[in-house]
Design a protein that fits this description.
Elements lengths: L18 H20 L5 H22 L2 E5 L8 H19 L14 E7 L5 E8 L4 H14 L7 H6 E10 L21
Antiparallel strand pairs: 1-4, 2-3, 2-4
Helix pairs in contact: 3-4
C-alpha cells in the first residue's frame, strides 16, 4: 500500500534581485559615499558667517521683544550685530556710572513690574523718554529718568550703526526686589526675558 506524504509547511519563494537591480543599488551607494567624501568640512570663514547669521537672528528676536529697537534708514544694510552689542554694553556702563550720582531711595520701590523706553539719536543725544507701563513704580521711573538725563549725551553711533539707523530705542524693565534681594544696576536681560 502506498500512503501519500503528509503536507508540510510550504516554503515561500523568496524574491530574488536581478543583476540589474543589484548594480543599480551598488551605484546608488557608491554615489552616496562619493558625496560624503566630496563635502569638505566648513572653513573658518563659513563657520564665522554661520555664527554671524545666528547672532543676527538673536538680535532680530531682541528687536521683536522690544528691548533694543533700531529705527532703520530705508534701503540700508543692517548694522553688524557685534557692533550693536558693543555699543549697548558701553551704554549700560555709562548708565551705571551715572546712577552713582543720582539719589535713589530703595524703600520706595513698588510691587509690580514696570517699563520705560528711551530713544537715542545717532549723535548720542536723547530723542525721547516714554513710560510704557508705570505699574506702581513712580519713584523708580523718576530715578531712571534722572539717570538717563544725567548720562546724556551718549557716545555717537559707530559708522555702520550710524549708516543703518535713525535712532536706537532701549527698553528698561523695572522688576520689584523680592524681600530685599533685588540687585542694583542696569543689565541686559537674557533670552526669553520680557517685561
Amino acid at each position: 500500500m502506498t500512503v501519500p506524504k503528509p503536507a508540510g509547511p510550504a516554503v515561500a519563494d523568496t524574491p530574488r534581485e536581478s543583476l540589474a537591480e543589484k548594480e543599480g543599488m551598488k551605484r546608488f551607494l557608491d554615489e552616496l559615499a562619493a558625496e560624503a567624501k566630496a563635502a569638505p568640512k566648513p572653513s573658518l570663514a563659513q563657520r564665522s558667517l554661520a555664527m554671524a547669521r545666528d547672532m543676527s537672528r538673536q538680535q532680530a528676536r531682541v528687536d521683536a521683544e522690544g528691548s533694543a529697537m533700531l529705527e532703520r534708514r530705508p534701503n540700508t544694510p543692517p548694522p553688524e550685530p557685534f557692533s550693536l552689542d558693543l555699543y549697548l554694553d558701553g551704554l549700560l556702563k555709562r548708565l551705571n556710572r551715572s546712577a552713582a550720582f543720582v539719589r535713589n531711595d530703595p524703600r520706595s520701590t513698588g510691587l509690580r513690574t514696570a517699563s520705560v523706553q528711551f530713544r537715542i539719536n545717532p549723535d548720542g543725544s536723547l530723542k525721547s523718554f516714554t513710560v510704557r507701563n508705570a505699574g506702581d513704580q513712580q519713584e523708580e521711573i523718576a530715578f531712571i529718568k534722572s539717570v538717563v538725563e544725567r548720562a546724556v549725551p551718549f557716545a555717537a553711533f559707530p559708522p555702520d550703526l550710524y549708516q543703518a539707523a535713525r535712532s536706537l530705542g532701549v527698553t528698561i524693565c523695572i522688576h520689584p526686589g523680592l524681600g530685599g534681594s533685588g540687585g542694583f544696576g542696569f543689565t541686559r536681560t537674557g533670552e526669553g526675558h520680557a517685561c
